[in-house]
Amino acid sequence: MSAQTIRDAVIIGGNRIPFARAHTAYATAGNQDMLTSTLNGLVARFGLQGEQIGTVAAGAVMKHSKNFNLTRESVLGTPLDPKTPAFDVQMACATGMEAIGSMANKIKLGQIDSAIAGGVDSISDAPIVVTDELRGILMEANRAKTVSQRLKALAKIRPGHLAPQAPGVNEPRTGMSMGEHMAITAHAWGITRAEQDELALASHKNLAAAYDRGFFDDLITPFKNVSRDTNMRADSTLEKLGKLSPAFGKDLGAEATMTAANSTALTDGASAVLLGSEEWADQHDLPKLANFIDYEEGAVDFVDGAEGLLMAPAYAAARMLKRNNLSFSDFEYIEIHEAFASTVLAQIKAWESEEFCKNKLGLDSALGTIDRSRLNVNGSSLAAGHPFAATGGRIVASLAKALHGKPGKLGFISVCAAGGQGITAIIEGR
Amino acid sequence: MAKDLYTEFANTGLGRSLTKSLGLPQPAKLRRHRPGRPLIDGPVVVLGSSEAASALADRLLSWNLDVRRHVGPKEKVAGVVACFDSASSPAALSSTVLEIGMLLKQLKPSGRLITVSRDPQGTSDPAVRAARSGVQGLTRSAAHEMRAGGTANGIVLADDLDPSAPGVAGALRFLLSGRSAFVSGQFISVDSVTGALPENWDRPLQGQVAVVTGAARGIGASIARVLHRDGARLILVDIPAAGEQLAAVANEVSGTALQLDITADDAGERILAHAAQHHGRLDIVVHNAGITRDKLLANMDESRWNSVIAVNIESQLRMNRAFLASDLFNADSRGPMGPRIISLASTSGIAGNRGQTNYAASKAGVMGMVSATAAQLAARHGTINAVAPGFIETEMTAKIPFATREVARRLNSLNQGGLPVDVAETIAFLASPQAGGTSGLTLRVCGQNLVGA
C-alpha cells in the first residue's frame, strides 16, 4: 500500500442561477431543471464539455421520491462525459457545504482529481404526498393477493385520508417552526430589533453593490429570464424595515423582534462549485481561486431546550479553529449564513461571550470579536434568498472569488441547519 | 426568424412556373458550404490571357477542379473566372467581356462569375484607370443580371501584386464556394502577399483562438458555430443578462462563456485575461455585439444616441486599444497567420436609413475605424476588416412588419434575405490565414442590396 499524502483541494470557480422567491419565476421549474441549468452554466464557464469529472455531489432538502438520483440525472442532462459518477447528499440547509467539504476531502486524499459539488431546492415544486393512513392502506392493497383482499383494504379509505400533505418545515421533534426556535434563542441572547434590521439592510446593500460592480458576472448564469436574485431590495431603508410587524415569537409581545425582512424568505434556486487538484486545474488551464482548507460538522441538543436550534456552528467553529490554531482575527472575510439576522447575531454574541466560551465550548476565554466590516461583504441569504441546499455553493464560490488575488488570506464560513446541526469551514485565497 | 414562405413556394414545381409566367421574383435555393462537399460542382472556365489567368488556372488545377479555357456551346459550367488584370484601355476589355456573355446562359444554378482586375488607384494613367474602373462597373451590372442564385464578384489586386499570392487564392476560393452564397456585386481587394493557405481547407482556423461578442443569439451564435466548424476554439461574450443562451451556445461549440458588458472600461483586459487563462493566446476578435435604438433625428434623445454609440463603436475602439497593446494578441511568433479583427458594420452605415442616425453613425464609424486601424495590424502581419450585412433573416428582422419585410428581403439581386450563416461564413473567411492579404476593407453580405449600392 502506498503512503497517502494530503494535497490541496482548489476551488476553481462556481455557478448558480439567480435565486427567486418561491412560487414566482421558477414556479414551474423542478429541482432537476434548476440543477441541470446550473451545471450547464458551470460547464460553459469553464469549457468542461465532454469532460469526465471525478465525482459530482449535490442534493436537495425538498425532494420528490422520483428524483432519487437527482444529481446523476442532472449530470446526464449536461455536456459532461456521461461516465461522470454522481450521488445525492442531504444534510438540511448544510447540504451544499457537506457536498463541497466531502468532495474537497476526496481531492485532498487523491481519490479524485476533480469534483463538482452543490445543491438545489424548490419550494414551488415541493413534493406533496398522501397521508400516512392512506399510504398504509394503498401498500396493504398492493400486498393483497386476491381481488377481495384488495377491495377490503381499499374500503378502509375515508375522506379525511385524502387531504394532501405538504412537506413539513417544522422540527419533527418539537413541532415548532425554525423561526419560533430562533425567536427563543434571539430573546435569550437579548438581540434587538434594530440590530437585526441593520444586518438585513446591510445584506441587501452589499448584494446590490456586488451586482453593480459586476462581481457576479462570472458567478451567476441567468435562468428563465431572471438575472438577479428577485428577493433583493436595493432601495430598502431602516424606516421601511422598522414598519414591519413581527412574524415569529409573537408570544413575546412587545419583545418580539423577528420580522419577514430580518428572516430569510422561502426561495428556489441552485448552485454548484468546481473543485480540483492543483495539477488538474493547471492541466485544464483553469483558474485557482482559493484552497478549501477544512470543515467541521456540529450538532446541538435542542430538543429539550438545552441549546438553540441554530447554534451548532458556534460549537463547530470552536473545534475547527482550535484544530487549525486560528482565531477570528486571522480571517479576511467572515461568511455567516443569514437564516435569520438573529442567527448571525446570536453566533457572534456567543463567540464574544466569555461565559459561553468557557462554559459551553470549554475554552479559557472568549473566541473573539467579529469585525463587522468583514462580515457577509457581498450580501448573504437575507438579500439573496436561501434555497436550502444551494446556500453552501453560493457562499463558497463568492468567498473564493473575494479571496482570489489575496494569497494566504483566510475566509470563515458558518451555515446552520435544521435538526440542530451546522457546518463551519475555512478557505484560503490564492 | 420569420419563415420566407414565398421563397419556399417559388421553389416548388407550381411556384416556379407561376412566378415565371407572372414575372414575379424568382428566388433560388442558394448553394451553401458544407464541409467535405466539393468546392464547386462543375467546370470552371478561366478567361483572359494575362499573368493572373495562368496563375489562377494553375491554382484551380491544384485543387483538382475541372478547369477549362474554352467550353462547347451546350456545356454547363459552374464558374467563370475572367481576368482583366493586364487591360490597358476600356477597348481592351471587349473580347473577354463578350466571352462572359456567351457563357452566362450556360451557368448552372448558384453559378459564379469572378472578375480579376488591378486596383484603379494604383495607376495615374487615365486609360488604364478607366479600364480598371470599367471592370468594376461591368461586374456590378452582371451581378444584377445573374440568375438562379448566381453571383458576380471581383478580386482587385494591388498594382504590383503577384497573382499567385495566397490572398488571391483565398479570395478566389471563397467566391467560388458556397461560403459566399449571399455575397454579390462586391470586390475583395488583395493588397499584400501576407497570409498562407491552410493545410486543410475545411479546418482553416485549426488551433486558433477566437472571441465573439454578442454570441448568445442570432448572427453572433451563427458566427460561433461557423468558426467552431472551421476549427477555432472559442470565447463567447455577451451581457450577463443573456447568460443562459450564451451558455447554451458555448456548450454547443465547446467554447467558454464570458458574461461581460463590452462597454465596461476594462472589457478588453477581461477578455485578454480570460484568453490568457484558458488558452494562452488570442488570434481572432469578432466585434459582433450591437444594438439598435431607432428614432427619427427630430425625436432623438440622449440615451438612445449615446447607448448606440457606446455599444456599437466606442466599445470596439476601447477594446482594440487593449488588444493591440497586448503581447497575447500578436501571433507573430507563431508563423504567417497574424491576428485578425473583424467588425460588424451595416448597409445602414453605407447608405443611411430613416430613423437610424445613431445606428448609421456607429456603423459608418466602424468602417472608418477598420480602415484607420489596418496599418497597426499590418505591423504584426494581421488584418482588420468589416462585414456589412444587408437584409438577414434574424429575430430582429422578423419583428419588421410583414409588408415592409417582404419588400426589404426582395430588394436585392438574389431576391431573398440572407441567413445568419452567410454573414458568419464571410467573417470566417476574413479570419482565415488565406485572407491575410486583405485588410481595411468593408465587405458587404447583402445579395447586392439596392440600398447603399
How is this structure best summarized?
Chain A: InterPro entries: 3-ketoacyl-CoA_Thiolase, Thiolase, Thiolase-like, Thiolase_C, Thiolase_N. Chain A: Residues 289-428 form the Thiolase C-terminal domain. With 430 residues, chain A is an alpha+beta fold.
Polypeptide structure, described:
Chain A has 430 residues and is an alpha+beta fold. Chain A has a domain at 178-214 and 294-429: Peroxisomal Thiolase, Chain A, domain 1, CATH 3.40.47. Helix content of chain A is 34%, strand content 17%. In chain A, helix 1 crosses helix 2. The longest helix of chain A has 20 residues, at 193-212. Chain A is globular and about 75 Å long. The two termini of chain A are 33 Å apart. By secondary structure, chain B is α/β, with parallel strands linked by helices. Chain B folds into two domains: 39-190, Rossmann fold, CATH 3.40.50; 209-445, 3-Layer(aba) Sandwich (Rossmann fold). Chain B has 14 helices and 13 strands. Chain B has a seven-stranded parallel sheet with strand order 9-8-7-10-11-12-13, with helices on both faces. In chain B, helix 7 crosses helix 14 (420-431), helix 9 (267-278) crosses helix 10 and helix 10 (302-324) packs parallel to helix 12 (357-378). The longest helix of chain B has 23 residues, at 302-324. The A-B interface holds A 37, 40-41, 43-47, 49-50, 78-79, 214, 216-218, 220-225, 227, 285-287 and B 240-244, 246-248, 250-251, 254-261, 264, 277-280. Chain A: Pfam families: Thiolase_C (PF02803), Thiolase_N (PF00108). Chain A: It comes from Nesterenkonia sandarakina. Chain A: GO terms for molecular function: acyltransferase activity, transferring groups other than amino-acyl groups. Chain A: Residues 10-279 form the Thiolase N-terminal domain.
